[in-house]
Each structure stands twice: as structure tokens, then as C-alpha cells.
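Section 5.1 Outputs to date
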Amino acid sequence: MGIIIKPIVTEKLTDQGEKLNRYGFIVDRKANKLQVKAAVEQMYNVSVADVNTVNYHGKKKSRFTKAGLLRGRANHYKKAYVTLAGDDKIDFYANI
């Protein structure tokens, strides 16, 4: 599996993409900032100025069913916020 798992397409990050040239990705939990930078530059043919990463700890969840109380937890994952240099842009909707 590659470094980049999927892009994050939310209202907040779409706005940041337009104003600050910043985009979000869900990345491999073991990947470091240099690996994320190289993967984004190779995949989208852009130049990356800055990478910020956030480790997200999955929350505990529980629900009541006929079988009783079910407990579990959401997955852990890592987010990367990538700021592009210059006038580079990433269009996530180009291949639809």
C-alpha cells in the first residue's frame, strides 16, 4: 500500500485549498513528513512547501442491541496537511 490512502474532501479543507493552497490527506500511520512530501509531489506533479501531520486516536464506541451492549473503537489514522508552493493546485474532481 502507498503512503497516501485518500484525500480529505471537506468544506473546511476545500476553503483552505482555495485561500491558503493547503490540502488534506489520510496517510499511512508510519509515514513521516518527508515521505508524505515525496508521495504528493510524485502523484500530483506539484511542489510542496510545507507538511503538517496529525495522529488521530480512534474513539471508543458502544451501542445497545438485542444481543446486548456492543463495544469497540473507531480506527486510528494519520492526517497530513500539505501546503503547496507557488501557484500549484490540486483538483480532486478532475477524474470523475
